[in-house]
Amino acid sequence: MKLSEELEARGFIHQFTAETLAEIVDGEKRVVYHGVDPTADSIHAGNFVQWMLLRHLSNYGHKIILLVGGGTGMIGDPKPDVERPLIEQSEVERRVQKIKLQAENLLGGNEITVVNNYDWLGSVGLLTFLRDIGKHFTVNELIKKDAIATRLQSENGLSYTEFAYPLLQGLDYLTLYREKGCTLQTGGSDQWGNLVAGVDLIRRKEQKTVYALTVPLIIDKATGKKFGKSEGNAVWLDAEKTSPFVFYQFWFNASDESVVDYLKLFTMLSLVEIEQIALEVAQNPGARTAQKKLALEVTTIVHGFDNATAVARVSEVLFGDLTIGALNASEQALLEANAPLVTVDLKASVIDVLMVANLAKSKREARTFIESGAVTINGNKVLAVTDTMGDTVSLVLLKRGKKNLSLVKVG
Predict the structure, then answer these.
(1) Phi, psi at 105, each rounded to 5°
(2) pLDDT 10s per residue in the chain (411 long)?
(3) Does the fold of domain 244-337 match that of domain 3-217?
(4) Beta carbons within 10 angstroms of residue 329's beta carbon
């Protein structure tokens, strides 16, 4: 299968500046760049898809440049609603270093060149910029770009700082074309106008054809919401921001409607293997085979095999059939760090523990749960409302139903 066919089959392609995608990715090996402004010090799930695209391109032999916007990050691209806050240069530099380390990991060992656009934007003179770059753009063109057009119609208006952003991104592409031979820029679909600005600038100044390619915004089909910071549900690839356990759970909780799409985009599994998983989902969605595979594969890419395996085993204790006794010491510590935990007396009744663990609001409700068979300790149903914790081991898993649970230390 050609790379263009695989990328389209996996769902990576939204728009591109050529007659066919094959013209861009199937022929000569290109120098490709993707730009990231340091609006945070970590990549998140919403733009993780970009790195999976770059990984496919790199595996095919295209050379990858990560442009970290130390310069443009001090300005901020136009958001549809409000102006981004300006960031101090020292903070920009700190974020640049962290993003660089993440990017190198995400390409799976493939070579990556990292550049900072502050290196050229920081020294460009205003008059030079206006003469050499500004004269190649018309206001008529700029106000048609989606983010700019939306802001012009809002109460907040648009500052000249933001209005100039597409010109700065165009200069980035021109600089990388001249200095690195770069002929392809990738980005999200919301960046289309900025990407095309660079393509047009190079055509006008150099009389050369270069390309732009965007991926679609990733939408959860079950909720209609997108991944990303702006939705208030950011899942970060930095373990200090989102722990490997929480990261794993995010993917494990993928909806049945979207999980196969996510396997295509966020893992390196073959399309043949994914098709087989899709058949299993159709036959037995309750087994959550696809979600388990997705969570393990993505967590391995981001946090490594050992971390991924450990959090998968802990997850299986909480939501599957694995027992606490099957965990090693480090896995048990991980379990205790990530699950609700209460400490109770040996003689405590299960009814009281359900209330302490916030699994029941009252003794009456707790009795009802027990009598209906909804309460288990380490997978075994609690049979009588008079049962106590006295005969249990020191750490147990108390569950009401499948998803309401708490670890209980007994002593």
Answers:
(1) -70, -40
(2) 899 999 999 999 999 999 999 999 999 999 999 998 887 888 888 889 999 999 999 999 999 999 988 888 777 665 555 555 667 778 877 887 888 888 888 888 788 998 989 999 989 998 999 989 988 988 888 877 676 777 777 777 777 877 888 899 999 999 999 999 999 999 999 889 889 999 999 999 999 999 999 999 888 787 887 765 445 567 899 999 999 999 999 999 998 999 999 999 999 999 999 999 999 988 988 889 999 999 999 999 999 999 999 999 999 999 988 999 899 999 999 999 999 999 998 788 999 999 999 999 999 999 999 999 999 998 889 988 888 886 656 889 999 998 899 999 987
(3) no
(4) 7
> DSSP for 154-173?
SSS---HHHHTHHHHHHHHH
Answer whether 119's CB lies under 8 Å from 180's CB.
no
Domain definitions of the chain by residue range:
3-217, 244-337, 341-410
For residue 140, give the 3-state DSSP assignment: helix
Phi and psi based region of residue 96 (left: phi greater than 0; alpha: psi -120 to 50; beta: remaining)? alpha
Assigned CATH class of 3-217: alpha beta
Q: How far is CA 179 from CA 122, 156, 270, in A?
A: 17, 38, 36
Domain 244-337 has CATH 3.55.40.20: no
Please give the Cα distance from 376 to 402 (Å, whole number).
10
Instruction: Please state, in angstroms and rounded to a whole number, the distance separating the CA atoms of residues 121 and 125.
Output: 9
The tokens for 34 are 């993707």
Amino acid at 253: N
Q: What is the pTM of this model?
A: 0.87
CATH architecture of 341-410: Roll (3.10)
Residue 322 buriedness (CB in 10 A; 0-12 / 13-18 / 19+):
middle
Q: Which residues pair with 65 in a beta bridge?
A: 33, 113
